Amino acid sequence: MISTRLTELLHIRIPVVQGGMQWVGKPPLVSAVSNAGGLGILTALTQPSPDALRTAIRETRAATNKPFGVNITLLPAINPPDYEGYARAAVEEGVRIFETAGSNPGKLVSFFKAHGCIVIHKCTTIRHAKSAEMLGVDVLSIDGFECAGHPGEEDIGGLVLLARAAQELKTPYIASGGFADGRGLAAAIALGAAGINMGTRFMCTVESPIHHDVKNKIVTSTEQDTVHIFRTLHNTARVFKNSVSKQVVELERRPGGAQFADLRDLVSGARGKVVYDIGDPEYGIWSAGISMGLIKDIPTCEILLSRIESEAEEIIEGMRKQVNLKAKL
Ligand code: NAD
Hints:
The protein is α/β, with parallel strands linked by helices. It has helices at residues 5-10, 27-35, 50-63, 83-92, 106-114, 126-135, 158-168, 182-190, 200-203, 212-220, 243-253, 260-267, 269-278, 301-328; strands at residues 16-18, 40-43, 68-74, 97-102, 118-123, 139-143, 173-176, 196-198, 226-229, 237-240.
């Protein structure tokens, strides 16, 4: 058993969080992760309205009596969402764990803290992590350059970013970006983290609500199959490398660059959602991290989390034995 500040704070068995994922963080996956001993997180903006989020929260609660959370991500969006409405609905439904991500979470964090909630804030720089500490968040989710979705604009990989977090932060932090197995969990703990956050790995589980063909595509892909779009718009996103994302990058690279309006039809989340619905990985943009290179199967969440736990324990034990042996020599 790996007990950390995260497992104690959230009352979970395994220090593994399933982070927010647009179109993926729905009740079947969230409840399966929580039932398996991790923390499942519903993605608020995947629901079309705050009322639909209420329904999703009730569905999740019917499927698990374990803790779960709600993610609210603040990033540029084609139709700016009613963030406060989603936050209010979730608090009124009794949710007490939130994951915030993106820019300027101050108002949301104050609202959640005023209602006695635990807030995990995801960020990609130590500077932002320190600002979030000042806002009073309970846990930081430190997202390295390896991650799927939005890695920020500073391109610092997890190895240095997490070691910097160990130097600078007082608040417990979890390691995010590139984590998919027990080796990753053991490494994260060595880097001072209280657990890990996984996205892409959870997309590729039995309970993940996306088409089987997309899960198979993740299994057969490697760490070389992602690309960054929106670099020139300063809203960088790591997504699966397909004909659509390559076209976006080409448009951004042409002389004079591209405006968001030139890209909107190619990149819209509504089009990306179709990928997951019909199982065509070429249909639109979908997020994927370089952890794809580590993913070789489609297990249940229960099997995945038990495996991660035992692998990590074995590796930590192995390291301890190696150190003891060296000390004796
Ligand atoms: P969307 O259809 O509104 O936008 C598609 C993509 O274009 C997103 O990456 C978005 O950030 C980007 N974008 C939109 N307007 C932009 C602009 N003016 N300039 C630069 N980039 C712009 O996105 P969606 O799929 O409907 O998702 C809704 C929101 O949720 C977006 O803000 C998205 O970034 C965010 N999101 C959340 C998660 C999560 O884990 N919760 C994951 C992915 C995306």
